[in-house]
Design goal:
about 190 residues; 9 helices; five-stranded parallel β-sheet; about 50% helix
Length: about 190
Amino acid sequence: METHVEQTTAHVDSGLGPDPSLLIVDDDGPFLRRLARAMESRGFVVDTAESVAEGIAKSKARPPKYAVVDLRLGDGNGLDVIEAIRQSREDTKVIVLTGYGNIATAVTAVKLGALDYLAKPADADDIFGALTQRPGERADVPENPMSADRVRWEHIQRVYEMCERNVSETARRLNMHRRTLQRILAKRAPK
């Protein structure tokens, strides 16, 4: 019984509150296990899922107070997991991870109720900081901000997502030749 009291006190002291439940959804097994261990050491009670289907099932069975969701999963889009979490629990603090630098989709996730998004590979300290950030707090300015080429690429991706991935419509809105846009979309994101 004493152990439970100590754990509860530890959760309150770490800023997690009385409900430290955390669901991590990522299809990168080694990353998922490392992050789960790191978050447990910071006071979270962690549950994991490696697919959209598993993430949705676990979020309905035990809606978490905190969630870290990768946007690109083997069986679909992490946005579906975020929607399922929001249907089960309004106050969940959700952080989105994106390995593809797709800011447009991350913005959609924020509109669905995610607190923030982090580009992979994000470390446990960054994720913990984002999950426990107080409302109105601002994140520190990154040491290595995006290059101008990357900002341009992200803007094109955002417009492309807003046009529901229609290349012709995106090219028209960006006042760009369709083939030029297709070449840009086929390339990897600049650093």
